[in-house]
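Anyone else keep sequences and structure tokens together like this?

Example one:
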Amino acid sequence: MIKDKIQFASANLLLGGLLKYIDKNPRKNLAKLITKSKKIGKKVFPEDNFNKISAAVLDEKNVWSGFALNMLNDIDRENLKKMFISFGLGAGYKGTKTARESRDKYGCNIPWIILMDPTSACNKRCKGCWSAEYGHKLNLSYDEMNSIVNQGVELGTHLYMFTGGEPLVKKNDVLRLCREHKDCTFLAYTNSTLVDQKFCEDMKEVGNLSLAISIEGTEESNDARRGEGSYQEAMKAMDLLKKNGCLFGISVCYTSKNIDFVTSDEFIDLMLSKGVKFGLYFNYMPLGSGAVTDLIPSPEQRIHMYKWLRKMRNGTTGKPMFVMDFQDDGEYCGGCIAGGRRYFHINSAGDIEPCVFIHYSDSNIRTHTLLEALKNPLFTAFYHNQPFNDNHLRPCPMLENPQCLRKIVKETGAKSTDLVNQEDVETLCSKCDKFAAEWQPKADELWANTKHPTPKTQYYRETAEGKKSLDK
């Protein structure tokens, strides 16, 4: 622990000097530093990644060159320095290395990210949000959340995301965790209503916290789901965060009804003008008794999303906002990332779930350690069965491969963790069968005719034990 503190203190001093060096000639000197960083990071990340980033920064016409300079100019310098250290050194380098070592040591999935719900409380009642039904009764205490982070860091997890409920209902606990764990990066998904000047100042002070503000497209579509005035509240919060130089992005649930607008130039340009630096996009999932299956994007809309993402991230055709979609970016991480393979979720009752969208569990933080949960039957089933499909445009064991989730839940005896209405796996998966069948031929055709990356996968089937089991 003392060694880590010294390491991060040294990095803080070094980064301060490096930022001054970059300021002398931002584009040229930033590219030089990225190239030199290959010596440190090449054992963890592909060397070619550094070459591509460096070339992009040097190209004045490249979108990502502009993005990098915008980050340097728009984000409070001390805030940026702390975020670089916690994310680059903590989550990026140290976390990735330790997580891979832990996976080999313990023979199970080890997450890079842990999502947790500090509370079920929320000051909104958004249509289709399961949290709106849970009420204000369930909470994780500060000590419980601190224990989660301590256990996670031991395994190599240095990135934590707060969901809910509205996590900023417990903003004091969130900020306290950020202060206590400077080697970790934190992000809160928020409706933004509790963002004020004091909170912006607190964000800059801790430095390792960013926000993803929920937005649903137009003012009309946003307020229809989130309540009258919600859109303007979000715009006001963005203006305040931008004024204070805070790092923030947007969280977008795309549906069959709003997908065209939330991928439009008009929407993205507005978000850029508000200071948004990243966009986290989520496919609508038919969870709970109030789910509307008609909101699941159609196969044609999924193809649109796949192509739009790649257009947005292209250095020539894109825009200076980093966007990702946990459904259509499966090819970059080898398919499903749930069950601890890259992340898992802990709800406000302490249930340890494989995914924020898969509400089943056989472990709870009040009765199990994180490592015990990762080695219990439910998460072990994810570990042994991933990828659920070698076509990573069909990654999910629920939405695209519902037969897989049916099998896992039934064989492991995992229980529904829905905090209001228990939903059996057959009821849930039956809502996905139609889309899965319709998407398969489209996805297979797209997969067969598209070039794909080759990420480091670390599947069970690639281990010595996994290879032996496949030979039997």
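And example two:
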Amino acid sequence: MNELIKHIKQTASARLAAPVNTQKIILCQKELTQNGNAMLPDAFLVILHSFNAVSYDGARIFGINPESKNFMDIVLANQMSPLAGKQNIVILGCDEFDYLAYNTETQTYQIIDKEDLEVLEEYSEIEPAVKHILKI
């Protein structure tokens, strides 16, 4: 995980939002579950403690109420997605064509096609899934 965070921070054109505090994470988790979505996985929380959102080459890793309008709030993204209310899914990011989601039922990170919602790839760890969506 440390390698992934270091790699993202060193990517010159990646825009990063400042890390988020634990209180915001707790409020976000509550809001996600109240909206019928899954809670954020622990590995994603590590990312949020390093930076609260990433935007790189048209792809995004969502954050919690990021202050910049360049970033998408994770709760809002989950409310607006066609996967809204799926209790075992939480959307963590996206690119032009796909979502990056975590499936609590299978405990996998999934790349899901935005058009037909088909699972294209599954990863057991967050690092390759984030690299896939950011194309780094």
